[in-house]
Amino acid sequence: MDTDLIMVGAALAALMIGLFGWLKADNARLGDRLDERIDGLDERIGGLDERIGGLDQKINGRIDNLRQEMHQGFAEQCAETGELRERMARLEGLLAGLREAISGRTAA
User: Fold this and answer.
1) What is the DSSP letter of 108?
2) Mind listing the pLDDT tens digit for each residue in 5-48?
3) Chain-centre distance for alpha carbon 79
4) How far apart are CA 5 and CA 1, in angstroms?
């Protein structure tokens, strides 16, 4: 009877040792698989960083071009406005002279 109990105890100990060995090995495989997936995600994130960096450069280039075009457009509008003011001043002078000529006064 004592030998049966010892045998059962030894069998249970062997089962527990085997079970814990299997769990340890399975846990190690799980760790390896997780490491592989994490490495794959790191590579994908690195690729996304490069794509985002490229898009950022493109967008910044477009913004700079738009800003430059706007400044150029404003400069052209300012020059045109100045020219129109000069023409308007000349026309006002001519109109004043015409009024004076029609009214019979001499131009100043």
Assistant:
1) -
2) 888 888 888 889 888 888 888 888 998 899 899 988 888 888 88
3) 37
4) 6
Assigned token pair, 58: 């493109």
- Residue 33 DSSP SS3: helix
CA–CA distances in Å: residue 23 to residues 20, 53, 66, 105 = 5, 44, 63, 116
Chain position carrying tokens 């340890």: 24
The type of residue at 32 is: D
Its pTM surpasses 0.90: no
DSSP 45-79: HHHHHHHHHHHHHHHHHHHHHHHHHHHHHHHHHHH
Separation between Cα atoms, residue 12 and residue 18, nearest integer Å = 10
* Token pair listed for 33: 């698989």
Most confident region among 48-52, 88-92, 98-102 by mean pLDDT: 88-92
Alpha-carbon gap, residue 77 to 56, rounded angstroms: 31
